């Protein structure tokens, strides 16, 4: 089962093409897959080895962040005009996927340094309630080696 949601609450899960905790070598490409149990809008953040955070989806190459329920989505997809190529600095990095039943009011500029990710952002609960819709999030990790 990809998503285990209770009482119809929004739930999202994600993984790299090699699974959570995967190891990639310098220059290899990575694909991120995610799945939501309800129609949702998605934001995906990259948190590098140094804790710097960037919005990587939606982005300037693919701005449509709406996904249909129970549809496995891969970014970049086969027809996307970009790839995620891994490199220095080496070490453990994170991908944060956030799903919302309503469109986000704040979509940061893609690939722009958003500053240091706080511990609270990285480890807060997987599901919280918003006033105008549901919000769910998940965190995956991977390691880049030489």
Description:
This protein is mainly β and 146 residues long. Helix content is 3%, strand content 47%. It has one helix and 13 strands. It has one helix at residues 119-123; strands at residues 12-16, 22-25, 29-30, 32-36, 40-47, 52-57, 66-67, 73-75, 84-85, 91-100, 113-116, 127-130, 133-145. The strands form three sheets. Strands 2, 5, 6, 7, 10, 11, 12 and 13 form an eight-stranded mixed beta sheet that branches. Strand 5 and strand 6 (52-57) form a beta hairpin. The longest helix is centred in the C-terminal third of the chain and has 5 residues, at 119-123. The chain is globular and about 40 Å long. The model is unreliable at 1-6 and 122-131 (pLDDT under 50).
Short descriptors:
mainly beta, 8-stranded mixed beta sheet, disordered N terminus
Which runs of at least 5 residues are low in confidence (pLDDT < 50)? 1-6, 122-131
Major β-sheet, in short? 8 strands, mixed
The Rg value, from CA coordinates, equals 15 Å
Tell me the series of helices and strands, N- to C-terminal.
EEEEEEEEEEEHEE
Helix content: under 10%
Strand content: over 45%
Number of strands: 13
Number of helices: 1
Structural class: mainly beta
Average pLDDT: 83
């Amino acid at each position: 089962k990809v998503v285990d949601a209770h009482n119809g609450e929004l739930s999202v899960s994600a993984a790299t093409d090699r699974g959570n905790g995967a190891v990639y070598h310098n220059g290899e490409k990575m694909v991120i897959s995610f799945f939501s149990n309800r129609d949702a809008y998605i934001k995906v953040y990259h948190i590098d080895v140094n804790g710097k955070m960037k919005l990587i989806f939606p982005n300037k190459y693919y701005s449509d962040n709406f996904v249909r329920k129970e549809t496995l989505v891969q970014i970049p997809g086969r027809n996307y005009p970009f790839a995620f190529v891994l490199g220095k600095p080496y070490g453990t990095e994170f991908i944060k996927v956030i799903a919302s039943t309503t469109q986000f009011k704040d979509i940061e500029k893609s690939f722009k340094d958003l500053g240091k990710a706080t511990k609270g952002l990285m480890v807060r609960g997987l599901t919280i309630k918003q006033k105008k819709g549901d919000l769910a999030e998940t965190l995956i990790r991977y390691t880049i080696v030489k």
